[in-house]
Amino acid sequence: MERKTNAGRKKIEMKLISASDARQVTFSKRRSGLFKKASELATLCDSETAVIAFSPGGKAFSFGHPSVEAVINRYDGQSQALDAGDQSVQTDNLRELIQRYNALLDQLEVEKKRGEAIKRMGMEMKAKTWLLTPVENLNLTQLQILKVLMEDLKKRVYQQREELSKKARTPRPLPDLNTVEPDDPSASNPTKNNSMEGGGGSE
Known about the structure:
single chain, mainly alpha, two-stranded antiparallel sheet, elongated, disordered C terminus
């Protein structure tokens, strides 16, 4: 006796249903099943759940526990809090990066000045040796460096001369005659001197 084989439930291929009527019927069935599952999830797990679906015709259907509006408001509130927190963190990170960048710029400027000072000291030491060397024995590079140093020295001499000239042209304040005491005490009382001279004549 032959056993009849049951093909079982045919698996539906997941692709868009071309017929509009069949698509609408499938939406209605699947929507009911989806809302039923959402209700079971809210009941079994005491979860706040919201499901919103638009039909092929553009009509909206929703399920929510305790309500769709309450779930959406809670979601928006958490999203805004997360956005504000992320923005605060980004601002702090940006401020820290700017501070580190400025510190690196300051350090770079210090190192640059230090390097220039060391280079200048080396050039000046070489120039002192080259000054004692006949010009005919210097090469082109040495002559160019010596020229730069001589021009710099000329500039500094000129600045120093100008500063000394300004100090020399600055008038000194005149002394206050009211506060100067005479060297001769008798000069402060001419009347007494005259009376003493007159007394000597009468004798």
